[in-house]
Design brief:
2 domains, binds nicotinamide-adenine-dinucleotide, Dihydrodipicolinate Reductase, domain 2, alpha/beta, 29% helix, Rossmann fold, elongated, single chain
């Protein structure tokens, strides 16, 4: 699989995500999977069956001078020690999210990356998701006016997957898992700073880590966001719900189904007629008339950015900045810490983030 002109990457932790990275690397030019290491023998057999070279130990990876980059795709608790060891061995490092369990640990890694002059970057890949790019485009082009409220959630009914994700010692829990993705996306949607955080973590399944959470995040510019992750939701709410001064929008699911509804500015405001609702009448909750609103589907947004690995190779060659800057990764972890704090103290955390 190797080619001398290519950047050689070794996957450390050849589990679900580590093995998926082989597909991501294949889509990029200038980089190849050079080998893999995982302490579980059947994981190494799987790598071998795909023609990937096996390493007997992490140390063997680090001492191989042909290895340029180490990808860390292990459980979260060992990301820091493995990243630092790889950087000190002169390797560039890509680390899976959540990069570390605390923001202080990330600063330690960044310090070593600075000292060793190696690239350290984190695979916060959902900043390339189509649904997110559509919401970003909606907000940037003010398609529903100025957005003042958004709700972003992922909900499943399968509980916390796997084994280590259910344990605190491994950095488990849904806030550190899916929370990273949704919060990373949120912070890319506005230039404003966070002003306050309120949150509740869910422990419905009886695990020692959260099986989901609800957070309300307010920004200095007035935007409010509800960010929610659930693993006990047999009926799920839409992936995105966004309100603006001129309308509202919804993206229901990964299939990108949804719509944008705005006021029809060409039609004079018509007083709604009261409707029968339950055992009463309501005018306040009557739907707006068809003439006074415009319904449109979302337009697909073309992603013009390089993929993760293409960008990584360009960053390595000094031709581009890394697509996921470490200060942004650090900001996400700081926000996660405020969410944990708000939930534990049952209070609103007033903090500029
Ligand atoms: P997994 O349990 O499927 O795989 C983890 C593998 O790491 C296992 O095969 C295990 O044997 C191996 N491992 C454990 N300790 C090790 C060590 N010290 N050295 C080398 N290998 C070791 O877990 P997963 O779902 O693949 O998750 C791995 C990482 O990827 C986690 O950090 C997770 O949060 C992240 N992840 C990211 C995404 C994403 O979309 N970016 C998706 C899934 C998982």
């Amino acid at each position: 699989m190797t080619n001398e002109k290519n950047v050689h990457l070794v996957i450390v932790g050849f589990g679900g995500m580590g093995s998926y990275h082989t597909q991501l690397v294949e889509q990029a030019e200038g980089i190849v999977v050079h080998g893999a290491y995982d302490p579980i023998p059947y994981r190494m057999e799987l790598a071998s069956s795909r023609g990937i070279r096996k390493y007997e130990s992490f140390e063997a990876v680090l001492s191989d001078s042909e290895v340029d980059v180490v990808l860390i795709a292990t459980p979260n608790d060992v990301h820091k020690e493995l990243s630092i060891a790889a950087l000190r061995a002169g390797k560039h490092v890509i680390c899976e999210k959540p990069v570390t369990v605390t923001s202080a640990e990330l600063l330690e890694i960044m310090q070593v990356a600075e000292e060793t002059q190696r690239i350290f970057t984190v695979h916060q890949n959902r900043r390339w998701d189509e649904d997110f790019l559509m919401i970003k485009d909606l907000m940037a082009h003010k398609k529903i006016g100025e957005v003042f409220h958004l709700e972003s959630r992922v909900q499943g009914a399968n509980g916390i997957p796997g084994d280590w994700r259910q344990l605190k010692a491994y950095g488990g829990g849904m806030l550190l898992d899916w929370g990273v993705h949704l919060l990373d996306q949120l912070l890319l949607l506005t230039d404003s700073k966070v002003e306050s955080v309120y949150a509740d973590l869910s422990y419905v399944l009886g695990t020692e880590v959260d099986d989901g959470f609800t957070s309300i995040i307010k920004f200095k510019d007035g935007l409010t966001a509800v960010i929610e992750v659930g693993t006990t939701n047999y009926v799920k709410l839409p992936r995105w719900y966004v309100k603006g001064t001129e309308g509202a929008a919804v993206i229901r699911d990964w299939d990108l189904s949804g719509e944008i509804v705005t006021r029809n500015l060409e039609v004079e405001h018509v007083e709604p007629k009261p409707i029968q609702a339950g055992k009463g009448l309501t005018k306040t909750m009557a739907p707006p008339s068809e003439e006074s609103t415009i319904r449109r589907p979302f337009e697909k947004v073309e992603d013009l950015s390089d993929g993760f690995y293409t960008n990584f190779v360009a960053a390595l060659n000094g031709a581009s900045r890394q697509a996921v800057p470490n200060d942004q990764v650090h900001r996400v972890l700081t926000l996660i810490e405020a969410i944990f704090e708000a939930a534990e103290s049952r209070s609103i955390i007033m903090r500029e983030i």
